[in-house]
């Protein structure tokens, strides 16, 4: 099996960190997003919406969507659990993973795509919306700061996929000049801890 | 336990349909989004980002995010499975559920929020972006039409959460005048089938 990956993009990084935490080796095939390799006819057969990452199994079955790929490996390699064990843990981790994804990760992505025009050959940038998305992302950092005041990690007491999504979002946010603020000391403490894990360099 | 719900909104409907398919009875408490009841200080304690649905357990623990609530009940009541049983099924259903959510459900939602200004007291509508989102949603109906040519349901051979997300998106899309096109006969066949299930009226 192999994963179609783009080393510089924030979404595939989520899967790389997830697999590194699980200790799973993987073959990665690099796809150049700027050249549009991801939207070639061949890649559209693997994922009709033309996005990476894509996991290709040995029989040719393809699974796209970073969290779906993580779900596959969580089921096959439950240890260490990154998506929860009990029903309540699973739900709480999914709640935080989704909130971080929608309110931070995607807002950073929309800010990038709509203010820079990086993908203007294949989408319609609306800079005014990009600015709004950036403000939304900044505001959500306040929610995380509050959450991390009393919690070591975002979703519960152990590292989870919610932390991975937040780390990838915050690192990528530098591209659009969104950073942890000086007074967000709990968020900074969390950021330092998750960045120091070996998986962060995957 | 109870769920804070808004009967007219597309997101909480996903949970109602999911629970109806599982045969789970639930107490629903109505929250008026237009009056801003969802962003009151009390509701912010239950969900810091002020969105419904929210599942409140008897001990006061709150789980927000529709798919996280569904995940909780999938773990506690596995039959009938709506999120997959094997690792591959779980991944494929999550893949389709996410693609339908991002490329259709959310695009319809952004089109509604940004073109109508319905929530302009609490967000900054960018009408030009709303138009783009509506076009994105319409385009994704073509992906579903192609998918449903050879598949009875969206993710695999049985009804899943991906079908629920798509049904709620397509029904809500009428508000912004996005509809299944006359030549999308497979999508229409699927729509008629899932709309006829008793759960659709939940």
From TrEMBL, chains A, B:
A Pfam match: GST_N_3
Origin superkingdom: Bacteria
Domain GST C-terminal as annotated: residue spans: 86-202
GST N-terminal domain residues: 1-81
Gene3D superfamilies membership: 1.20.1050.10, Glutaredoxin (3.40.30.10)
InterPro entries: EF-GSTs, Glutathione-S-Trfase_C-like, Glutathione-S-Trfase_C_sf, Glutathione_S-Trfase, Glutathione_S-Trfase_N, GST_C, Gtt2-like_N, Thioredoxin-like_sf
GO process annotations (BP): translational elongation
Sorted UniProt keywords: Transferase
GO MF term set: transferase activity
PROSITE patterns: GST_CTER (PS50405), GST_NTER (PS50404)
GO cellular component: cytoplasm
The protein's name: Glutathione S-transferase 2
Organism name: Aliiglaciecola lipolytica E3
């Amino acid at each position: 099996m192999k994963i179609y990956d783009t080393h510089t993009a924030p979404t595939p990084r989520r899967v790389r960190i997830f697999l590194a935490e699980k200790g799973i080796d993987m073959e990665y095939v690099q796809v150049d997003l700027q050249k549009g390799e991801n939207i070639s006819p061949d890649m559209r057969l693997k994922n009709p919406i033309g996005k990476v990452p894509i996991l290709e199994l040995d029989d040719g079955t393809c699974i796209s969507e970073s969290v779906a790929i993580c779900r596959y490996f969580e089921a096959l390699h439950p240890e260490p659990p990154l998506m929860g064990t009990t029903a309540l843990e699973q739900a709480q981790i999914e709640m935080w993973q989704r909130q971080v994804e929608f309110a931070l990760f995607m807002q950073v992505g929309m800010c990038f795509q709509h203010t820079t025009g990086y993908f203007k050959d294949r989408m319609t940038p609306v800079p005014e919306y990009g600015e709004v998305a950036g403000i939304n992302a900044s505001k959500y950092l306040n929610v995380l700061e509050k959450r991390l005041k009393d919690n070591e990690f975002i979703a519960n007491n152990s590292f989870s996929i919610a932390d991975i999504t937040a780390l990838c979002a915050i690192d990528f946010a530098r591209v659009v000049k969104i950073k942890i603020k000086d007074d967000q000391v709990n968020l900074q403490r969390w950021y330092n801890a998750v960045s120091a894990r070996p998986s962060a360099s995957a």
